[in-house]
Amino acid sequence: MAQHVSLIFFRRIPCDPQIDESGCCDIEVLLSQRAAFQFSDASPKPQSFFRGMQIFPGGKLEKDDASPLQGAYRELREEGGQRLADWLKSILQVSPERLMEINNFCFAVEVRPDDDLAGEKEFVNLIKLAAEHSSVDWYSNLEVAGFQDLAPYKDGVPKGVKAIFADEAGWIKQLTELISREG
Question: Which of 74, 77, 55, 57 has its CA nearest to residue 65?
Fold first, then answer.
């Protein structure tokens, strides 16, 4: 089975000082909604996951990828478009420390308000979604922690249920813990 690679885009959200005086910093991550997630198996008709949330971008490491990071970058180009990939490359040339390794196959990049953009709306406008994606949006780590595991929903996620693959939710949790240790 091919290894899953992902790249998490995240932004820091300061806590409300009236609620929490510790100066903590929460994060939100960018997820995409997959209209249909196809995978090949031995059956004549591939199974599908419908309407599930996933880290944006993410996918399978291919044999042509020189490294997991190259695979995650390729997924970014395929799912988000060349313009977004070029933007990320230019950001990391100036600030390579903004690329964090969650584990050997998952990486994270911080989106900052001063990124030559007038805020996150313009960042999202850099994204040209691949056909199988239906939406992208920011979710707090607490929201993601409340999502159900997407894996059991082979015939479609029920309306109103938020679901993400358990390994991806785990990577977001790991990222949250890394960020909280920094602050």
Answer: 74
Dihedral, CA of residue 111, residue 115, residue 118 and residue 122, to nearest 10: -60
Question: 3-state DSSP call for residue 91?
Answer: helix
Q: Which residue segments constitute the domains of the chain, with CATH numbers given?
A: 4-182 (3.90.79.10)
Model confidence pLDDT, tens digit, residues 43-69: 544 455 567 899 999 888 888 877 888
Q: What is the pTM of this model?
A: 0.84
Cα distances (angstroms) measured from residue 130 to each of 8, 67, 136, 155, 169: 17, 23, 11, 22, 22
Identify the residue with better confidence: 9 or 115.
Answer: 9
How far is the C-alpha of 176 from the C-alpha of 26, rounded, in Å? 8
